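User: I'm preparing a small set of examples for a lab meeting where we compare how different chains pack in three dimensions. I only have the primary sequence for this one, and I'd like the structure in token form so I can line it up with the others. Please keep the answer compact; I'll paste it straight into my notes.
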Amino acid sequence: MVTTDQVQRLHSLFKKHSEGLNLMTLAAELAASPSVVKEALQQLTEQYQAPLSYNSDTRLYAYFTEALEAFELPGVSLSATELRGMVAVVNLLNDLNPGHNSDELNQLQRQIETLVVTHGLTIDDLGQRIRLLSPTKRQINNYIYQQVSDALFTRKQLNLHYVASDQSISERAVSPQTLVHYRDQWYLDAWCHKRQQLRTFMLSRINSAYQLNDAAREFSREELELHFHSNYGIFSGGETQIAELRFMPGAAHLVAQQQWHPDAKGQWHGDEYHLNLPYNDDRELLRDLLSYAPYVIINGPEELKTAYKKRLQDALSRNM
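Assistant: Understood. Below is the structure token output for the 320-residue chain.
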């Protein structure tokens, strides 16, 4: 039996290969028998009126040249592979902001489910086979997410009550710049009018948020990129330093396969991997380095080494 996916796959092949394809090549591309391919070719021409020709001398099937660019299959032409990707994207959107889906997103999900059925796929099976796990995700208040995202796109300032890591609460006005989903957490990059700096705020630490009438301060993409992406990690600001790291066997190969930062420089020394990494806020870097203990040695700077040793000593003293 011919599936919609096979017909769409044929259409894509003929659009891509204007010179034509023979029956055995089409069978290999569709992973189907020649008889199934012939049935799909017949459906393509009779049901969809595709401008398909067959050259008996070369034994090639092809679209007529004059109709190659103009002809498209009616409806949304997505393959089974593309539909599986769409299901994964919708699941990701649901996971990023649970319980706050828009009518448009729900409608899109229903349309995708309809397309999935027409391709002979099962939506429940796709949901079972594609799983998105966020073990460290912190729940955020949907009202706060809405206020932040609305201010971001209306280009208005926000008033925030923000809880710091030491549980102190501060009130400040910010000009939102970018909403970032990073390592299962939501962050807001913004200009802090209180500190007169570009700062990063974790949405799960925002107690309350409401829009102000004042317009947000604007920055160019280049300015934001330079500040927020010039060094390692989500937290930026301050003077750039270079972490000099040595990773021992047991972690070296794993570390060497990761892209820590575009400006990071790594090289092998025997069975050790040495990595120089730009950073300006050690909070995230320390957490990552602790996850590689005891297979990492910090050669510098001294402040980073001291902070790392203190974390290890504190952990050891509390677990004696």
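A couple of notes for your slides: The two ends are 67 Å apart (CA to CA). Residues 241-317 form one domain.

User: Perfect, thanks.
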